[in-house]
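User: Predict Molecular chaperone's structure from this.
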Amino acid sequence: MKTFQHVTFVLLLIFAGMASAFAGISIDSSRIIFQSSDDARGRSVGVTSSVSSVAPYLVRAQVSRDIEGNNVQTPFITTPSLFRLEPGSTNQVLVVKKPGADGLAKDRESLFYFRSVAMPAGEKQSASPSSVVGGSLQVSTATVVKLFYRPGGLALPQQQAMGMLQFSSTGQGLRVTNPTPYYITLADLKVAGVRVPLSAVAGNTMIAPFGAQLYARAPHQGRVEWKAINDYGGTEVFHGSVR
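Assistant:
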């Protein structure tokens, strides 16, 4: 049951743009890069209600360690964490690192998730994704983007790191190794002209710093072309070969 719930939530995350359209809520970035230089002043994130929204929303903003928002014990706080958003308006949420917060790696990026959970205003908000109020079902919609904490002094820039993936053939499939301190997210991957299935549900689109990802259904030799997502949400193309 837990696995089914996780897959269901990831599917909702994939269609976050569609869900946002229904809820009328969007976030101004497809990903958030929190630099160590932001520790003192924080990082501002815009949360916007569409002009086509027919009602205001009550929005809860938070940073979590997991996509579902079950673990919100993080080194970050959001202010305001709860606010009313009128149709066609934008509210700036400040993500701030807690004073004296420890536990963040200094030699690689750390991954968190910024969540904005919207519910029609005027109704009592609950922790569950839906609740029954006044005889009607009120559904809250979560819009989620990745938040990367990036320490200072990393050995190379993120753009260079995207092109440094290493590809090797193993008995279990194609192994893609990330030798860099950055999270590398793939938008597309082809080996010998054959597209390798990538899926957020399968959890194989992102390769952790100094980590690896195994693709069982991929050719084991040939030229490789991949598209990686940069800091601005765009993609850049790189080429290599299986060794």
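The chain has two domains: 24-121+138-150, 158-241.
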